[in-house]
Design a protein that fits this description.
globular; mainly alpha; single chain; 62 residues
């Protein structure tokens, strides 16, 4: 999953997945997204093509 996200988001070669793994604190999907957002923020010209945090559906009027 990490390598696919790195490649799909243009954050470099799929070998960058190892660096993402080393920066992760726990093996969850949310942690992968957090590290990828951080890498995209500090990479030159990279933009993460992932949706922002998922919003929880709310009832109308709340």
């Amino acid at each position: 999953m990490i390598a696919c996200q790195v490649f799909d988001n243009g954050l470099g070669d799929v070998r960058q997945a190892r660096g993402v793994w080393q920066l992760m604190k726990e093996p969850t999907r949310e942690e992968v997204i957090r590290v990828l957002r951080m890498k995209a923020k500090y990479s030159a010209g990279a933009e993460l093509r992932m949706p922002k945090k998922e919003k929880v559906a709310r009832m109308p009027g709340l």
